[in-house]
Amino acid sequence: MKTFVRSTLALGISLALVGAANASVDDMDPVTLRLAHVVNEQDGFHIAATKFEELVEERTDGKVDIEIYPNASLGDERTLLEGMQIGTVDMGVITNGPVANFVEEMAVFELPFLFPSPEAAYEVLDGPIGQELLDKLSEVNLKGLAYAERGFRNLTNSERAVNAPEDIDGLRIRVMENPVYTDTFRALGANAIPMAWTEALTAMQQGTIDGQENPVNVIHSFNLDETQTYMTLSRHTYAPAIFVMGSSVWNQLPEDAQVILEEAAQEAAEHERHVNAEMEAEQLAELREAGMEINDSPDIEAFQNAVQPVYDEYAEQFGDYLPRIREALK
């Protein structure tokens, strides 16, 4: 870790000199930005990250080199965000839930059953509301570039088929370390257990938790069929992810490099969304073939009714964002 901190601090000094001495990418000395995420190389986050790497290196003629660190090799998502704040991590693709621990309004996107479709989510995220919330990250020494995708989240467990909320009662379900997720699953009757993803994988293998909730691409790429017998396509929450940087690194880049990074992040995010949509049907088929029992038509209305207390509790906390999103969705 000491070596990593020293090299990142050296990068920061280099970037400071670049920012002071040069006004454009053409004039800057080459720099390397370390982009970290917590999932494996088959996951959508890595697809987004590699597309971003390709675009940035091409458009800066190699002046900005992106090094990708997958598999939580630099820490879990909260650790990565804290590292960006203090300058020991440059950037990452981070699930929205942990980001909302730093700017709580970001959690509005993850209220259960808020978005009826991916397209509806994209319209809000890529529009004024999404940009406004990205900009709020600057208040906590972070820079939001664009919304990538974790996707619509679905429930898996090792105990029993789930069709309605009463089937969840008492199940020990891992959720992200975010109060909206915790309260959503408590409202559904689960024993909701917040924990980092790396810990959840071990807990599922050891049987200390019964299940988890994640998009199909995560369930597939982490071979959760090996520990989880049942999947319910509840699509209970649409989870964005964010291309995010530390403000200290961002502020030291020339303005035209900043533009390149923002545009590349948006294009990489849209690329990941497209790939996720194309891959989901194939991934579900492979999970079924591996023996996972998948319920693709649960009682969604019953789930929606059960989580109404979450809206009652959180609506005011998000200020005018919830009514604005609902208006945008009309």
Characteristics of this structure?
TRAP transporter substrate-binding protein; TRAP_DctP_sf; TRAP_DctP; DctP_fam; 330 residues
Averaged pLDDT: 92
Largest sheet: 9 strands, mixed
- What overall geometry do the principal axes of the alpha carbons give? globular
| Portion in beta strands | 15-25%
Verbal overview:
This protein has 14 helices and 9 strands. By secondary structure, the protein is of the alpha/beta class. Strands 1, 2, 3, 4, 5, 6, 7, 8 and 9 form a 9-stranded mixed β-sheet that branches. Strand 5 (172-175), helix 7 and strand 6 form a beta-alpha-beta unit. The longest helix has 35 residues, at 255-289. 47% of the residues are buried. Residues 1-10 and 16-21 have low confidence and may be disordered.
Topology:
Blueprint: H1 2-21, E1 31-36, H2 44-59, E2 64-69, H3 77-86, E3 91-95, H4 96-99, H5 118-125, H6 128-136, E4 142-157, E5 172-175, H7 179-187, E6 191-194, H8 197-206, E7 211-214, H9 216-221, E8 230-246, H10 247-251, H11 255-289, E9 293-295, H12 300-306, H13 308-314, H14 321-329
Parallel strand pairs: 1-2, 1-3, 5-6, 5-7, 8-9
Antiparallel strand pairs: 3-8, 4-7, 4-8
Helix pairs in contact: 2-11, 7-13
Task: Please give a quick description of this structure.
It contains 14 helices and 9 strands. With 330 residues, it is α/β, with parallel strands linked by helices.
